Amino acid sequence: MTTTSQQAASPATTGGRLTIREIRKDYGEHTAIKRLDLEVRAGEFLSLLGPSGCGKTTLLRMIAGFEEPTSGAIELDGEDIAMLPPYKRPVNTVFQSYALFPHMSVAENVAYGLKRAKVAKKDIGPRVSEALRLVRMEGFAERRPDMLSGGQRQRAALARALVNRPRVLLLDEPMSALDRKLREEMQLELIRLHTDIGLTFVFVTHDQEEALAMSDRIVVMNDGVVQQIGEAEEIYQAPANAFVAGFIGKQNFVAATVGNTDGDTTVLHGETADLEVPVAAARDFAHGITVQAAIRPEVVAVAPGAPAGGTRNAVAGTVVGESFLGDVVQYLVRVGDREVLARVPAVAAPEVHEGDAVALSWAPEAVQVFGDE
Amino acid sequence: MRRFAAKILGPGALAFPTWAYAVFFFVVPVALVLFYSFGYKPDEFTTVATDRLSLERYAESMTGSFLATFAATLRISVLGTILCLLISVPFAYWLAVKVPANRRGVLLAIVMVPFWTNFLVRTLGWQIILSPDGFLSDGLQQLGLLSGPLNILYTRAAVQIGVVYNYLPLMILPLFVAMDSAGQALREASYDLGAGRLSTFFRITMPLAMPGVASGCLLVFIPLTGDYVTATVLGGANGSMIGQIIANQFNTAQNWALGAAMAVVLILVTLAVVAVAAAVLWLGRLITARLTRVQLEGI
Known about the structure:
The complex is a heterodimer of chains A (373) and B (299). Chain A is 24% helix and 35% strand. With 373 residues, chain A is an alpha+beta fold. Chain A folds into two domains: 18-243, 3-Layer(aba) Sandwich (Rossmann fold); 250-371, CATH 2.40.50.100. The radius of gyration of chain A is 25 Å and the shape is elongated. With 299 residues, chain B is mainly alpha-helical. Chain B has helices at residues 2-9, 16-36, 56-61, 64-98, 101-116, 119-130, 135-142, 156-182, 184-192, 197-226, 229-235, 242-251, 256-292. In chain B, helix 2 packs across helix 13 (256-292) and helix 4 packs parallel to helix 8 (156-182). The longest helix of chain B has 37 residues, at 256-292. The relative contact order of chain B is 0.12. Classes of the chains: A alpha+beta (373), B mainly alpha (299). The interface between A and B is medium-sized, with 43 and 24 residues.
């Protein structure tokens, strides 16, 4: 490597800090984002996660500048950029469709932003080469986009955005067009890139596994409102509400009314069975109120036969479905008139099959209690 | 039945109606015209004879008035194509980029409405507008923009206005389709990478619309060069085009051999102009590709 390309190395060493204040976006009668505050830390990998129509893409498009917020501010390192056109923002986007220019080679695509920024001609070549090396596309510089595979197109789109050394890189569901294996490969690649260049990443996805695997923090959105902001583990283990609990991972929800407290446990009266939960879990809810109790499939133990008398949080059921998923076995068990999902590590799976009577049990601490919305 | 048709006509059975039509109504007539152009007019009552073949009709066609009209025709058709392009580009861009998708259909229909009207009728309409005692003339005089009556009818200028109007939809349609298919996503990517609206238009939208520009120019230039209705109605004696001279040889002078020779010259010159334009475009593209090439390092 020559001295010039040494200097051109490590595009963007510092990521920008993005502050979104009281943003709102209306499309006529329809409100896409109700009122949203968000702080993206410098150098952070932040995911916007939610079902389609939750407002995550609208938020990303407002950060990029393709949409103007109805009200509110978007600050990049303290400067309000909400009303700047996209071509004046130090922010670049990797589009869902990649949007590579079909009439230009990969190298020309990557050089496009540098030329518009009037980067000196002698620096363009080295910087393009460097960006292509970063995404391992140096062998495809002269190819046209239609001669590339899906994964290669994504790398080219990534290089085209990164080469400009933006302060924030926006990624709009960039993996959705890739097959599973390639997607997992690209996830690792993106994490490596993020670690290498220390850029602020805002990543939009509807795939919770992707968000859990990649992000420093996750913003769970629904209906134009932020539901919870937190690290992956926090969001999974301590969801803020029933929506987050249900959206991230699988969940058994049981509607129940809050009953009496006895010592360290509170009883919840469900339709088919009573649940005992720690006092702390139901502390926020008064006696007699209807709540949603959430029990993750992996905390439900499955044993053959009937539940032993006197066991807390144990119900009798019949296996109606059994599927082997590799590392875990998933059971669908009919309890009364509802079905409960249980997941047991394959190495500890009980010898039960469809039609067998089983006992399901779970620890009181594993039950999460949410308000009924 | 399908197997039978395939046996008789080969694997291209589905294309049979098209090529049959093309052979009978295009290849055969053009071949006949070519053949007649080597013949001669033997007497007053016979249109063509081909017992002696020669290139004499070509020599005979190259008179001063023929060449002058030919040059004027090329001027009208080249200028007309350029004017159509300049008028259509902003409109097609506006329609493809700015107008919401649900209103484009109506606007395209409005563009096409004149096309559903008879060619002759709408050209005659221009005769009324451009006449010295027409409302345009009156209006311009009342506004003080014109001291005497408008003297534009039966001139080349009138023909020029008429052909641009008549062929405009043929330019707008392919341009709109090309600009629409480039898509909003690519323009957004261009803005995202720091290109302003003008830069995006010239670097992304127009280059991707080039196939539309090319087909629009062909659709306008070729029929325009051979057009004789517009010139007859609006040009009079001063504004004749080559199509009229050829038609006169076939219809009035009844000299099919000479008319055929002129028609062959017209076809060849039209093709030559298209070939030259294509070569210039190709060369331009080659040069810009050289200039925009990224000099990579260590790859």
